[in-house]
Design a protein that fits this description.
Blueprint (H helix, E strand, L loop, with lengths): L20 E4 L2 E4 L5 H4 L4 H8 L16 H13 L4 E13 L2 E12 L11 E5 L2 E6 L3 E2 L7 E2 L6 E2 L3 E10 L8 E5 L6 E2 L1 H17 L1
Parallel strand pairs: 3-12
Antiparallel strand pairs: 1-2, 3-4, 4-10, 5-6, 5-11, 7-10, 8-9
Length: 210
């Protein structure tokens, strides 16, 4: 989790005789490797003074900054991570038209993977377990320009092109309540408060009239 605003953050590093992997509350993490990056935390010199000549000289695994192995690992994380999308479904309705029934779906979604905020994620639309179609959030919405791109020690405002609105033909048995929108990783976009209220309102009105 990357916190947007905190008063203070404490980093705890474990320096070993050899660079290795440790488990921090069940999550695999690497031990301190005193390279140039370590000095940015203000501990590289202290660790070097304590370790003396016993500083680890090699990493436990080869360091990869780019290439097929890095890209394959990144894609594997995207596929299995449950929370890499930020966004909501703000509009969902089904209308009867002369040519048949049409679903109108709108909202926004931002890719939360590092350095992928401006890469529109593919969204799949389902009803009753059947895929109805796909859409891509690439429309400009000015209220989304405050979103940030993560991936380094800095964050940058995004372009705001994270909105989507589409119309898809649906079968006669499909209702607005049956439609879900989800990413390729299986994460389902939640309904916004207004969208959820709009879906419940017709049911409440029917009960009151009865």
């Amino acid at each position: 989790t990357q916190a947007e605003a905190v008063d203070c953050v404490h980093y705890y590093h474990i320096g070993l005789a050899e660079h290795d992997l440790v488990f921090a509350e069940g999550a695999p993490a690497e031990s301190l490797f005193p390279n140039d990056d370590a000095s940015e935390f203000g501990m590289g010199a202290a660790f070097a003074a304590r370790a003396g000549a016993d500083l680890p000289q090699a990493m436990c695994l080869p360091l990869r900054h780019c290439g097929q192995e890095v890209e394959a690992a990144r894609q594997a994380i995207i596929r299995r991570a449950p929370g890499l999308l930020l966004g909501y479904v703000d509009e969902i309705a089904v209308e009867d038209r002369g040519e048949g029934r049409v679903a109108i779906i709108g909202g926004w979604a931002q890719n939360q993977a590092d350095w992928q905020a401006e890469l529109p994620p593919v969204l799949e639309i389902y009803a009753h377990g059947r895929k109805l179609g796909e859409t891509v959030p690439n429309m400009l919405r000015h209220d989304l320009c405050h979103l940030y791109e993560h991936g380094s020690r800095h964050s940058y405002p995004t372009s705001g092109r994270h909105a989507f609105r589409c119309e898809i033909s649906v079968a006669p048995d499909v209702r607005a309540q049956d439609i879900i929108v989800r990413g390729l990783n299986g994460q389902e976009l939640c309904l916004s408060h207004d969208a959820a209220a709009a879906l419940v309102a017709p049911v409440q009105d029917l009960r009151l009239s009865a």
